[in-house]
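Ticket opened by: R.M.
Priority: normal
Category: complex prediction / small molecule

The reporter submitted a protein together with 1,3-dihydroxyacetonephosphate and asked that the result be attached to this ticket for the collaborator who will pick it up next week. Submitted input follows.
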Amino acid sequence: MKPRIALIAHDKKKDEMVMLAAEYLDFLRGCTLVATGTTGARLANELGLTVERKHSGPFGGDLQIGAALVEGQIDAVIFLRDPMTPQPHEPDINALVRACDVHNVACATNISTAQLVLTQLKLVSQNQ
Ligand SMILES: O=C(CO)COP(=O)(O)O
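Result attached by the on-call engineer:
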């Protein structure tokens, strides 16, 4: 089955998310992608990726992705959080990261970890 990956980035991390996705573009094209609203729009518009877009984070997008994850629909979350900027929906962000821990779903919150997770998923999918 195609890896199912959630991609989420706070505003100051969106450029990094686009660069990361560009680095793994061929692999990501073969994945089922879901994203919060604005992140998904950038990935679709700038890289041509097919992404299911949920609501924007502050409007419940993190919660929607968390709910999908709880239903077993997501294999990994790349969540480039901005640790320097307070977010109005901090409880939603914490809920999503907590859901990853409760359900043992890989959750990368910085570029270095995201690269490790994507590289591993790519290797696993190549060997299937
Ligand atoms: O706020 C976010 C994650 O908490 C991201 O939402 P957007 O992708 O809509 O900016």
